[in-house]
Write a structure and sequence with these properties.
heterodimer; A: 109 residues; mainly beta; 6-stranded mixed beta sheet; B: 117 residues
Chain lengths: 109, 117
């Protein structure tokens, strides 16, 4: 069982918006920035969002992140079939460990 | 560009030991903390270990604590993970990755598959 809680799957139609939640606690998200990672099937995870809401160079502005208290949200607008992937949230925990969410599989219908 | 290359995976028997290696290029290695992260087949990401840029801080995840040892060789841009008393549930792709500047995990290697069977 992961320390950070994500829904196992989400889905939406092309062009729509989808959000993925990530719930933690005061030991992790409540005290440290959240980052998000995108992983296509058979590929290496890639940093998608860092410091709660910032995008690395090359990440489209269709991807956005937010954080409130002990929860974070990844939003993807203008969904494309190419966005189908697994998405993971992560953060440092007070226990000197990095924690990931269990991952969310995005399906674009 | 930044490149991290892992090696050392393979098929090993339960109870044995193994050393995974990661060699970095395209970055100032001695300025980066380093992680090992693993992913069992068909499952999610699991953080394994972290070592600070200078090797002074070493943090181990619960799954490997007490049966693993990290080290790094900054002049050789290399990072290592020794795993002992290997078990079937250690089977995973092992990624090395850099600690990011904003409390994130920035660069990832391609991974090396370890199968304990």
């Amino acid at each position: 069982q992961s320390v950070l809680t994500q829904p196992p799957s989400v889905s939406a139609a092309p062009g729509q918006k989808v959000t993925i939640s990530c719930s933690g606690s005061s030991s992790n998200i409540g005290r440290d920035p959240v980052s998000w990672y995108q992983q296509f099937p058979g590929a290496v995870p890639k940093l998608l969002i860092y410091d709660n809401d910032k995008r690395p160079s090359g990440i489209p502005d269709r991807f956005s992140g937010s954080k409130s208290g002990t929860s974070a949200t990844l939003a993807i607008t203008g969904l494309q079939t190419g966005d189908e992937a697994d998405y993971y949230c992560g953060a440092w925990d007070i226990s000197q460990s990095w924690v990931f969410g269990g991952g969310t599989k995005l399906t674009v219908l | 560009q930044v490149r991290l290359v892992e090696s050392g995976g393979g098929v090993v028997q339960p109870g044995t030991s193994l050393t995974l290696s990661c060699v970095a290029s395209g970055l100032t290695f001695n300025k980066y903390g380093m992680h090992w992260i693993r992913q069992p087949p068909g499952k999610g990401l699991e953080w394994v270990t972290f070592m600070s840029y200078d090797g002074d801080e070493k943090w181990y995840g619960e799954a490997v604590r007490g049966r693993s040892t990290m080290s790094r060789d900054n002049p050789r841009n290399a990072f290592y993970l020794q795993l002992h008393s290997l078990r079937a549930d250690d089977t995973a792709v092992y990624y090395c990755a850099t600690d990011g500047a904003h409390r994130d995990i920035g660069y990832w290697g391609q991974g090396t598959l370890l199968t304990v069977s």
